[in-house]
Batch of 2 targets.
Target 1
Amino acid sequence: MKKYIAVIYCLLIGSVSASELVKPNIVIFYVDDLGWQDIQLNDLDDPCLYETPNMIKLAEEGINFTRAYSPAPTCAPSRAGILTGQHPAKIGMTHVDLTVLDHGKKDSKLVSPYLQGPLDLTLLTLADVLKANGYRTGHSGKWHVGSNAASYGFEVVNQDRGIHRRLDDRTRDFAKVDDEKYPLSHEKYPPLSSKNPEGISYPYDEVTESAINFMDKNKLEPFFLNLCHWMVHVPIVTRNGKLLEYYCDKLGQPFPPKKGDITLPGQQNPYFASMVTTVDWSLGKIVDYLSRTDDPRNRGKKLIETTYIFLSSDNGGAEIKGKEIISDNAPLKYGKKHPEEGGVRVPMIVTGPGIKGGSISNEPVSQLDYFPTILTVTGSSIDEADQKKLSGLDITPILEGKSEKVINTNGVERDHLFWHFPHNGKKSGILSGDYKLYKRFETNDYELYQITKNGKRHDLEEMKDLVKNPAFSQIVESLSKQLEVSLKANNAEGPYLNPNFELKDKASATVTTNDFDDASRLATVTIKKGVLCVDKAYVIYRNDPEAPKSKSHRVDKGLTDDTKHPGMRDLATISEDGTKITATIPEGLTHYCFSMIDSNNYRTFSSVYAIGKGVLKKAPAEEGKKKK
């Protein structure tokens, strides 16, 4: 059914009338794969070599959260978490491998859960709420949760990649002044050097320019801009030759660089350095526009005075791709695709009305806190049922300097954050106080680290596993119980046992029949009786594997109704004895399969059924293909 939006307008009590109530603008500036140590603000140990002057300046005008966390260690779930305000585990989007059928390899004990694509269209989003509250909503840049931003409350959408595209030869394919798509700017910007004392030009970036255009065209009304860069994700390239030369000089490397992978350790990749500074340049363009533009709704003020900016990254930094060393998250452990600190600890700066410049917060906060916080600062509210679904908490008291802690609506301090990543290394993690505990599903045991001691840096590197130390047994017991409670409360899925594992020691469900009734459109599969039963099952709608592949999934037309589409799934009906699974296939869909979790916790897929043709004998190649 359609999502129902109940928005309550919060009016200021006192002498301020409704007509005088000002709704501040909201800008989310979201960077892809920008690590906590990839900017100059959170320098620990060795200084960051990448120059981010605009981020430094932004922090001087607002608050720098030194212990900010993404909801997940990869892209799609973090974006979905911000949009919905709900934990990725709760909404069933815990990784980027949407619609992949993981059949499992013979040497893999576990398999990852199936992730529906696109993001559930019935979920209430931040854009839905703000649009209902009179805001103009715009999205610029990367989307990556399926379908199109227009399907989730955004009125103005531009999902262009901008400047960030692959190059035939990254050592020489640089933009020029007369470049057709990426002309160099006439204006000069930092960095300044002896070679370029007045600064350098930057290539045209559609992501940045479309964001500025959206704000300019909609400044007569309050606006919400969701600006999501494709950088600093792979490919590791830059079109800015002067910027690349600057970093080659700074790092003592030849320009142009030699062809091939950059394999120098640490933060010595000049291409990546150029990408970080380009993102920082983009931020400077956004802030410059807000700073010099009058706010037509607030006489005598500039837009920068009436706009909240939330800057962060979708996950920790990526350190290596193939043989190429991209960057270094040290002293944090690991990086992207890991729930350890290097994978989820991210930069975060917030500026806006009432925020004291130069503030620093060492309190653990999550991007899941954005939704309830933005509701507060925009004077919006959602109905009680939707409010209860939110996973984050309002951090407005911290922004306003009224509290140092994150407090819930009952006045109780938040005591933990948790992550669920049943992919790759297959771990869940929980942070509480000074400690961080991980559950390893592969071995069904735990790790425990004391990240801080009395709030100060301790084992930030997560090198000293305390799980077997008797002195910490009560902490292990307490945190493991809290983690299990959180996983259950959020309906966390997987990982599951792999029925194709060559060393499996228990029976798994075996499909015996796979049928479809044309008249009723009832799909049925049965499993072998007398062995075990199916506890939970889904029907998964699939694309025709023989149809031409399309690359339009990032920019397809918005899905504005509740029609079922390939990639989505629904709960199936299970017979009382747990051996017969059925589902009615909606009109218009031509392919489907079933996903079944049996009583031994094995996850089995039925073969894909093509209506009118029958069971596909060979699994479509796309079923086992995962994104790298």
Target 2
Amino acid sequence: MAWLFFLTAALFLVVVPGLALLSWFFREEELDPLERFCLATGLGLALQPITFYALFLLHLRGLETATFLLPTLALLSLILRFFLFPSQNSTTSKHWRASFTRERLPLFLVALTTVALVASRFLAMREMTVPAWGDSVHHTYIVQLFLDNHGLFSSWAPLAPLSTFSYHFGFHSFAASFARLTGVSAPQAVLISGQILGVFAVLSLYPLALRLTHNTWAALATIITAGFLSRIPGYFLNWGVYPKLMGFALLPTVIYLIDSYWKGERKGGPLFLTFLLLLSLPLSQMRASFISVAAVAAWSLWGLWERRRGTVEGIRRLFLLGCTGVIALVAALPWIHIMNSGNTVVRILKKSGARRGISLVQSDLSLWSRIDFYYAPLLVAAALLCLLLALGLKRRFAFPFSLWIALSFLITNPGLIGLSRFTGWIFNEVLIFCLYVPLSLLIGWGAGELLRLSASHRLGRIAATASLAAVLLWGFPKQAGIADPFFQLVTKEDLRTFRWIRKKTPQGARFLVNGFLAYNDKTVAGSDAGWWLPYFTGREGTVLPCLYMNESLANGLKRPYYVRLVKDVQSTGGEPSALRTVLTNYRISHLFLGQKRAAVGYGSNELIHEEWLRGNPDFKLLFSSGKAQAWSFSPK
């Protein structure tokens, strides 16, 4: 089965390198098998962008190294350790057997839940051939350019007239390696690796929950909550916001390592692995890195409080952690400089400067009034109740946890404490997306306590198993059917038309496609499959990937050019002579109308109306499939 092949490829790319790292920094008996496996997903994901980035700084291509060399060396490292330290193997075997004997039922249920999680994610995309919505357009472009350039790049040619690349690329490095290893196309790689990343994002919560609660039942309940009860992160399939998912998948591993460091179990290992994650986060998702830094700060403050009687040791640990963070920042500076060479940093600064009024702060805060779209009210209420109970019972994890939530909210909304000039570095939308992490952990702890109590006798174990099975049976069809056709720009009719365009139209053809003005009329977004036309046909379109606002344009083009084009076409109202003049001025030779005709995207409208073209001698219908059409434009 294809999905087994894809899973094996992902395990080779991500889990094998992660396990190799753990084998050198954590003794086998320190971690349970599932804990080690899930922790390896976060570490392995972090290594993907770091590999591409390091080789880019050395002026080398990173694709083959990240795809083949890194996992192969990691596998050899694991084999080498197995033969070099045979005495550890028997110890490990005994530890793992004892762990399985002690926690047989919950571990079996974790394995069953993982299988159900994987199945639900693959079933969710069963009707999709192309990833959904607008963000997936530039994600696919980037993955394709990674493949074409065998690593990081600057020019987006031939897909778009952009001359810089300054976007975070953690997800794209993983997707490109996945495409190179499996041979799937870039759109398929984005779709499939995005769903596998969704599995990793849920599983990465398991070791953190186990560490914070010391309860396998709680860890099990945590991944069930995130994977089957919460709409987020499963709903990301519809929005294509996979870089955010990448950042959130790394976050639990960061907290795990910081908690380990402050508990004093180890120093060097957690610090080095934390360095890797702190370096990977800004390469993977800049705004998620702020939430991770808030977590580091929260656990550090709590660690200092716990070590208040040994002030010198606490300060020394804080100093070492601070040095680790500074080194990670210095290591990331070359990419931050590249971000500045585009328009990414400038846009962030402008946004933060422009969002200084209290009314604008309140506008961003109003997103919380719609939280019920992302999370069921009952889920939020249960999480709040569990947090209050944990604080009342003085559970250790509850205090840094509460501090982390508070710090994350404040750095997202600094205007509430008089620091409005810093508003805009991170949005409430990102914080709401990330909320599934604390919600799942809190509900997991509360449910885990109940399950542990009930599992102390036979009838209780039966009841616990039945209740968890009921939750899975309730949540599985919801997750498997979470894909919403509204967000899918490309249909089979569009793909059929694209194939005709690629075969039958000249290479220099320039297509006018449906688009609409977005973000206060400062940019143009696509409203049907025409947004994908350059990728599938190799022909030029008039709607660029939305990242064009972050990058430098090539060939002397200016960003307002594309906004003016849409406004000028709209202003004609379809009047033949005015439309002829506008299309001639913009060097349009062809037009494409997608199957969905502006039915995708909030606030979108149809730029090109079919009735404008029919009966007009300037236009000729060349091909149609359903409502997807290709027209030629030849002024008479």
